[in-house]
Specification:
The chain is α+β, with helices and mostly antiparallel strands. It is built from two helices and eight strands; from the N terminus they run E-E-E-E-H-E-E-E-E-H. It has a single domain, classed as Nucleoside Triphosphate Pyrophosphohydrolase, CATH 3.90.79. It is globular, with a radius of gyration of 14 Å. The mean pLDDT is 94.
């Protein structure tokens, strides 16, 4: 059995809103929205990967808050784990630095106004429950 590789997705929350990032690459994903994040590197913890990926992709300083219940299959051997995170005081505002061409802060009522990547829909549903709570 091949080793599973965890991809961390950030449910970046601020003032009751969720940050969505629109993919610009690869072509088959471009134009669809996702929770920003990326692969956990060997020897790296998932929460450290989350902080690193958000710094690389959005130029922000964040703090993981908690793991969102669930695990969602991606293209083998990858699986998606979502984490809630918040911006640290003094962090710059998020900017689409790599793999994205737009960002949107979505209120709970706006969560389904964007076309999420299929593999992120279940994670976003979990986060929607957290936002409403």
């Amino acid at each position: 059995m091949t080793e599973r590789i965890v991809v961390v997705g950030a449910a970046l929350l601020d003032a009751g809103r969720l940050l969505a990032a629109r993919r610009s690459a690869p072509p088959e994903l471009a134009g669809r929205w996702e929770l920003p994040g990326g692969k956990v590197e060997p020897g790296e913890t998932p929460d450290a990967a989350l902080v690193r990926e958000l710094r690389e992709e959005l130029g922000v300083e964040t703090e993981p808050v908690g793991r969102v219940p669930g695990e969602w299959p991606l293209k083998p051997p990858y699986v998606l784990h979502a984490w809630t995170a918040r911006l640290l005081p003094g962090s710059p505002a998020p900017k689409p630095l790599q793999d994205h061409d737009a960002l949107r802060w979505l209120t709970p009522e706006e969560l389904w106004d964007v076309e999420w990547l299929d593999q992120d829909v279940a994670a976003v549903r979990e986060v929607a429950g957290l936002l409403r709570a």
